[in-house]
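Final report, Chapter 2: Outcomes

The project's central promise was a pipeline that accepts a single protein chain and returns its three-dimensional structure in a standardized token representation, suitable for archiving and comparison. That pipeline is now operational. To close this chapter, we reproduce one record exactly as it appears in the project archive, with the input sequence first and the structure output second.
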Amino acid sequence: MPGPRKKKCFIRNCGSGLSGQATSFFRLPVKDENRLAAFLEFNGDPLLRNLPSAKLLQLRICDLHFEEKFIYRLPRCTKLTYNAIPTLCRPPPLDIGMHAEPQRNLTSFSPIPQASNNVTETTTPLTNGVDQCRSIQNVDAEPADSIMPITGNNDLPFNYETPKRSKINDMSTPSNIMPSKSIAKRVLLSNQKSILGSLGISRRDLTP
């Protein structure tokens, strides 16, 4: 069967209990918060402060770290006084970088730019943009009649449309239109005079 487990001092770099030297070990004053803080501070390891009480009760500290005035040496046991705190054989300072959480380089982060509240409001109505577009479209505009279509090889454009033929009745005088009676009578009399004149006969000669 394995022998009893050897006790070891929880103070850093302390070899008590491992070298076989006969020493006395004491529990940590877990119920006395002020003394417990002094014990943990003497060790110098900040991780011990995060241990629960059940783990702290398992730790031991040897008598080499206490002055004789804090120790009761009795024939059967050795005890500490009610106000005993470790003061001897303090370990060297612990390198904080071994256990400290790496700090973020805050200078490498640039702050997020905040949106500016100074928003420039436009007072130009939207109708101005529409009018401006219309004015641009009307620049150098020509009438539709003046635009010549694209022509081919012929003289006339390919889309040239011949004018529609007007109705004959609109362009000529109707054949059924007769001259008035007075005009017809005058024409007839003038014709008679010319005929009688050519024959040397007058209208009196024809009167009975």
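Archive annotation: Residues 149 and 159 are 7 Å apart (CA to CA).
This record, like all others produced under the grant, will remain available to the consortium after the project formally closes.
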